[in-house]
Amino acid sequence: MSLDRTAAEQLSSQTERHVVAGAGHLFEGDGERDEVATVAADLFAECLWSTDTLVLANLKVQEPHVLTGT
Which residues span the domain enclosing 24? Predict the structure, then answer.
């Protein structure tokens, strides 16, 4: 986990770490992958779809929205 913390500190964007209790690096336990999927889906819903400008890794893509054309 110290490697994760070190990597997060080097990013210029906002970071958030979520620890899945008891999980190994393959997430083989009951419900571990489901928890990761839920956390990731919540992050995408909160960060990516809440604005008109899609921001990924500090890269701003300012093209017309696929559905609205704006």
Answer: 2-61
